[in-house]
Phosphonopyruvate hydrolase (Rhizobium calliandrae), 290 residues
Amino acid sequence: MSPGKRLRLTIEAKGLAHVMAGHSPLSALLVDEAGFDGVWASGFELSALHGLPDMSLMSMTQHLDMVRAMVAATTLPVVADIDTGFGNAVNVVHAVKCYEQAGAAAVVIEDKIFPKVSSLTCGGRQELAGIEEFRGKIAAAVAARRDPDFLVVARTEALIAGFGLNEALRRAAAYEAAGADMILVHSKQAVPEEIEGFAKAWSGHTPIVIVPTTYPQLTEYRIRELGNIAMVIYGNHAIRASIAAMRSTFARIRRDGSAVNADCDLVSVDDVFELQGMAEIRKIEEKFLR
Ligand code: SPV
Ligand code: MG
C-alpha cells in the first residue's frame, strides 16, 4: 500500500491524524515509538539541525535526502514540508516527482514568495504569492503525482501575513478548486480563536490541517468538536525537546565537573543500541560471518 493511501486510511479510521515533527531518522523512529500517525519533515527542524534559520537557505536536495532517510527508518507516513515548492510551478512539478519517489506520503506547499521567512519569526517578512500563481502551483503538484493517493496539501499564510479571516477563506477556496487534498491554515496567535474562527467559517469540503505551536492549549477534544480538522502537526517539538535535553545535560556536566550525576537521567547505551538495530546486526553476524 502506498504511503499516501496509508495516511488517508488512518485519517478515515481515526478522524484525526497526529503528526509529530522529525529532523532525522532517529527522531522519526522516536515519533513512531511514541505512537504518532505520521512524521512531519519540518523545514524549521532541519534548518535548526543545520544551525540555520528557516529562510529557504537549505536546498531541496538536503531536505529530500533527509526525507528519504526518514522514510527508510520508519513505517510511518512522512509528510514533507516543501516550503514554497522551491520556485515556480515548474519547480513544484519536479519537487512532487522527487518527494513521491523518495517515499513521502504528502507534500505541504505554502503560498509565500521564495525565499520564505519562518512564519513564527517576530516581525518577519511575510509576502504572499498571488492567488492565481499559487493555484497554478497546486494544480501543477496535483498533475505531477503518479499515485492518486499522494496528498497535496495547500498551506495558506494569509493569517500569518495579517490579511485576516476573509482572505484566508478566499485563498483556501481557490486552492481547493485547484485540487488540493487538504488546506493547512497557519496562525501564530497565542490563543486558538483565530483557527477556531477559520474552522467554523470554512464551508469547503477539503479537510483542514493545523499546527498548534503558539496555541498549544487547543485540546484534541476541542479539535474533534470543530469537525473539519483532519490533521494536527506538532511542528517543532522534536528539535525543541532535543535542545532542552542537551542544554541541561551539558550544563550539569560542566557544573559538576563530571558526568556522574547527569548519567542516571540519560538513556542507556543499550537503549541507543536498540534504536540502532543492533539486535538485527547480531543475527546477521551469527548467520553469515565466517
Ligand atoms: C515547520 O515546521 O517548518 C513549519 C511549521 O512549517 S512553522 O515553523 O510553524 O511554520
Ligand atoms: Mg516549514
Summary: The pocket of sulfopyruvate (ligand 1) is lined by residues 21, 42-44, 54, 81, 118-120, 211, 213, 235-236 (CB under 6 Å). The radius of gyration is 20 Å. The chain has a mean pLDDT of 98. The longest strand covers residues 17-22.
